[in-house]
Design brief:
- The complex is a heterodimer of chains A (398) and B (468).
- Chain A has ten helices and 18 strands.
- With 398 residues, chain A is α/β, with parallel strands linked by helices.
- Chain B has 468 residues and is an alpha/beta fold.
- Chain B has helices spanning 13-24, 55-58, 60-74, 135-145, 162-171, 185-191, 199-214, 272-277, 317-334, 341-367, 392-400, 406-412, 426-437, 441-444, 458-467; strands spanning 2-9, 29-32, 78-80, 83-89, 93-98, 102-113, 117-119, 132-134, 152-157, 175-181, 219-221, 223-229, 236-241, 254-257, 260-264, 267-269, 281-284, 289-292, 305-307, 383-385, 390-391, 456-457.
- The chains are: A alpha/beta (398), B alpha/beta (468).
- The A-B interface holds A 39-43, 47, 153-154, 156-157, 160-161, 170, 172-173, 230-233, 270, 272, 288, 290-291, 293-295, 297-298, 300-301, 307-316 and B 87, 89, 95, 101, 388, 401-405, 407-408, 411-412, 414, 417-419, 421, 450-452, 455-459, 461-465, 468.
Chain lengths: 398, 468
């Protein structure tokens, strides 16, 4: 292939939403970028999820500021990107089922108000007015009007197309074999279509990041957390806002391996309804499991009883990349010069992708960072040192 | 949760044969079918609400269908009718949705999948107009509901189904204004020598031809449909002569007034259930589709799962019957039944029959293979995905933006995401992608089925928390 002797500035590995965003913002910063994707953009996790752009479910001290920045960037991207990705500032409602949920909801409203995120308390009647499809016995909810939604696959493809127009070379259908290091720094990526020399590499490969990094002697604690979705076909039940039950945040923060189900309902532009959510630690299994989809269906019916005869037309599963503190890894791996990581967004990848991409671009170009380095630095799990044995990973180029 | 020894999914030709064979061997059998009665397509009977006054008037298939229904009852094969198999739980439990809203499950020691096939969709301008039916659909409506889908009919396509469908329409009182067959008489004559030994088929063909000749139905060989037009429903169809690649020849267009267009370009196997069970698939180039890999004993790659009939590749009712018999015998043997001399004789006879019928199936494959021109009839604004109304132009645009497979196109449009989950459009989209990228169809057709195989109410899904 032409130009393969001259190293690109950055090789981004992974064509999901985060890799696409990194490519786009790196190109915006003027760098020469190659995006390497094993199948096609959003083939896996980014194509098996809902399109949340939420603030209220974010961890308050670090993730929320990242989320706020990202939300603002999403709004800009609507105008910047040529391809439509169905961005809709539809707002979200956190729905309580009982007194405990109501209390959690009020606390959440107060916490978020303190950091400038506006939300409105909805009593039972107001909840019913906002969202008539909800069961009438629910005690209340909180409305966050600034939350939004995109179609995650369209959004990934829009970012990829935007990147391409900025000169990014997109290599789909290309499998990464290993990273090539020389003298403790990045030299190239070995792929199924040949060697790609690069001055820097961004690992944005989601749940597959760990394997690629490990082969280069770098330990990145990113693991798969399975989620499943039940798709309901078009029907008379209308859901206006993004709905999530108050217990959702608990399932995100939990580290339990057993099945966690929390109601999530997202209507799409064509009128279908995506129902979730589930979390379980079962390795890389992407098979739809009956127990989980049945639990998702049952939970959805508790909140949206009018769906009982609505037709489920499809179910699917995806793997969220999660890290030990449930915060993403964004930044350099100090033990290997030129190696960066952008993954671990655990169910908030869509929301946080633009701010992640921008932060990575700031790291690589040496610009001022939007956020303190320590917040999302991959090294925080290493205790500040690399556990990487550099000599084992050295492959002398040629 | 129900238990059985052998679950047979699909009560058509193959399924009935499998059930009867397994019963003869002494196994407990539960037959499951979506429809109200056993019979599949070939042996579809009028709904039980009808009272049949003359069996002969309904034809030989009806008589045979009645006979088979009696045999099934006599053999004590349990039939779960109006029951959809929508998924699996592990490799031994079938998830059921029973009409009336009940979720259920059927655990079996062996499974025979005989889920049949469905009409191959072909896209052309106007194919979504009311009054444009598949040939199989029109036949099912006539057989099962005694409803004529139209009075002035054009039957178009390629393959042996056109004759029986046209004959049935004529017998029911429709005016069939033409049978449009993409292949040529010359091609039929060239392959005629391969009909030796298939005397029953020849007899059938002669009977249909005679009936159609008496009714003076015009025949257009070497022609295909180009477009259907009308306001709110089909009112006229334009056909044209085609070359060997089924591309229209300039200056040969002819337009006929109709209120019903029946289109029959062969079938596609229903392979979702074998795929969900984990069966390995194999590509059949002659039929341009993936089917479950199987041995001559009709065993799939999963030890206790057998496959038979059109599910394994399109081959007709007689082949399906032979394969069903083999599958039933082998499934019974797997779990310790049968194995006697009678059983061995039945198996050998079925295997001989299968061998014989496979030769005929291959003849049909060769004679009626789809040619590339048939996938080029659609205009840019012709929908390929009917559920989500995605046009050919949008699919081509996705390819231009880098999509190189059906799944990739799905990521950029909504093809295959509607209620039919790609049954209508996956092959159509695949052909466009293959054509635009030059990639082989087998690599482009990368869809993987997910449950439910057909839509089920959310309530039934939620019930599975208790049922399983």
């Amino acid at each position: 292939m032409a130009g393969h002797d001259v190293p690109v500035d950055v090789a981004v590995i992974g064509g999901g939403i985060v890799g696409a965003a990194c490519s786009y913002y790196l190109a915006r910063a003027g760098l020469r970028v190659t995006l390497i994707e094993r199948e096609f953009p959003a083939a896996r996790t980014s194509g098996a999820c809902e399109g949340n752009i939420l603030l209220w479910d974010k961890e308050v001290s670090r993730e929320l500021p990242l989320g706020a920045r990202s939300l603002a960037l999403w709004k800009e991207l609507v105008g910047e990107l040529e391809l439509d990705f169905e961005y809709h500032r539809k707002g979200s409602i956190m729905v309580a089922e009982d007194a405990a949920g109501l209390a959690a909801l009020r606390r959440k409203l107060a916490d978020l108000a303190a950091v400038g995120v506006s939300g409105t308390f909805l009593g039972a009647r107001e909840l019913n007015t906002e969202e008539p499809a909800l069961a009438p016995d629910l005690p209340g909810g909180a409305l966050f009007p600034d939350d939004g939604q995109v179609d995650p696959r369209y959004a990934t493809n829009a970012l990829v197309e935007g990147a391409r127009r900025l000169g990014v070379h997109v290599q789909a259908g290309t499998v990464v074999h290993r990273l090539i290091l020389g003298q403790g720094r990045i030299e190239a990526v070995e792929t199924s279509t040949g060697r790609i020399p690069a001055k820097a590499i961004v690992l944005a490969a989601g749940v597959w990041t760990r394997e690629i990094a490990a082969a280069a002697g770098v330990d990145l604690p990113v693991h798969p957390r399975k989620g499943q979705i039940v798709v309901v076909g078009r029907g008379p039940t209308v859901v206006h806002r993004k709905l999530m039950e108050a217990g959702y945040v608990g399932t995100v923060e939990s580290s339990a391996a057993t099945l966690q189900v929390a109601m999530v309902a997202e209507s799409t532009r064509t009128g279908t309804l995506l129902l979730g959510s589930s979390r379980e630690l079962v390795g890389f299994d992407r098979q739809v499991s009956l127990a989980t989809v049945a639990a998702i269906a049952a939970r959805a019916l508790r909140f949206l009883p009018g769906l009982s005869s609505a037709r489920c037309i499809r179910t699917y599963a995806g793997l969220r990349p999660f890290s030990p503190d449930h915060l993403p890894l964004i930044g350099p791996v100090t033990a290997v010069d030129g190696l960066y990581v952008a993954t671990g967004h655990e169910g908030s990848g869509i929301s946080l992708a633009p701010a992640t991409g921008r932060l990575i671009a700031q790291w690589i170009t040496g610009q001022a960072l939007d956020f303190p380095a320590a917040w999302f630095g991959p090294d925080r799990f290493q205790g500040g040192q690399g556990t990487h044995n550099a000599t084992q990973a050295v492959v002398h180029g040629g | 949760m129900q238990q059985t020894e052998i679950a047979v999914v699909g009560a058509g030709s193959a399924g009935i044969a499998a059930a009867l064979a397994a019963r003869r061997a002494g196994a407990q059998v539960t037959l499951v079918d979506e429809y109200a009665q056993a019979g599949g397509q070939i042996y579809r009977r009028p709904s039980s609400e009808f009272q049949v006054l003359s069996e002969e008037a309904l034809g030989r298939d009806y008589v045979r269908a009645r006979q088979l229904a009696r045999e099934l009852t006599g053999a004590s094969a349990s039939l779960l009718a109006n029951t959809l198999v929508w998924g699996v739980d592990g490799a031994d439990t079938l998830l059921l949705y029973r009409e009336g809203g009940r979720a259920d499950a059927l655990r079996a020691s062996a499974i025979v999948v005989a889920a049949g096939a469905y009409d191959r969709p072909i896209a052309f301008p106007g194919w979504t107009l009311p009054g444009v039916w598949t040939a199989g659909g029109a036949q099912a409506m006539l057989k099962g509901q005694r409803i004529l889908a139209g009075r002035r009919v054009l039957v178009a396509g390629a393959g042996p189904l056109l004759l029986p469908v046209a004959s049935a329409l004529v017998a029911a009182g429709a005016a069939v204004v033409g049978i449009v067959e993409a292949t040529t008489r010359r091609a039929w004559v060239r392959q005629a020598y391969r009909m030796v030994g298939h005397w029953g088929r020849i007899g059938d063909a002669i009977r249909y031809e005679a009936a159609l000749r008496i009714a003076r139905v015009p025949r257009f060989f070497g022609h295909t449909v180009l477009r259907a037009e009308g306001r709110g429903r089909v009112e006229r169809v334009t056909i044209a002569a085609v070359d060997r690649a089924w591309r229209p020849r300039a200056g040969t267009e002819r337009t006929l007034d109709v209120d019903l267009l029946c289109v029959g370009y062969g079938f596609l196997s229903a392979v979702e259930l074998p795929a969900l069970l984990g069966c390995e698939m194999v590509y059949l180039p002659a039929q341009e589709q993936f089917v479950p890999r199987h041995t001559a004993e009709m065993a799939s790659s999963i030890p206790h799962v057998f496959v038979a009939g059109e599910t394994t590749g399109v081959g007709g009712a007689h082949l399906a019957w032979a394969e069903g018999t083999i599958a039933g015998v082998m499934a019974a043997r797997l779990i310790g039944h049968g194995g006697g001399a009678e059983d061995a004789r039945a198996l050998r006879a079925a295997q001989r029959r299968r061998h014989h019928e496979l030769r005929f199936a291959r003849l049909l494959d060769d004679l009626f293979a789809m040619q590339p021109g048939i996938y080029d009839l659609g205009k840019p604004d012709t929908p390929l995905c009917r559920c989500e109304e995605v046009t050919r132009a949008e699919v081509e645009d996705a390819v231009r933006r880098g999509a190189a497979s059906v799944r990739a196109v799905k990521g950029m449009t909504r093809v295959g995401q509607g209620p039919c989950q790609g049954r209508m459009c996956a092959h159509l989209v695949a052909h466009v992608v293959a054509h635009e990228t030059g990639r082989p169809l087998s690599e482009v057709l990368d869809v993987t089925p997910r449950p439910p195989i057909k839509p089920i109410p959310l309530d039934a899904l939620a019930q599975c928390r208790r049922a399983v």
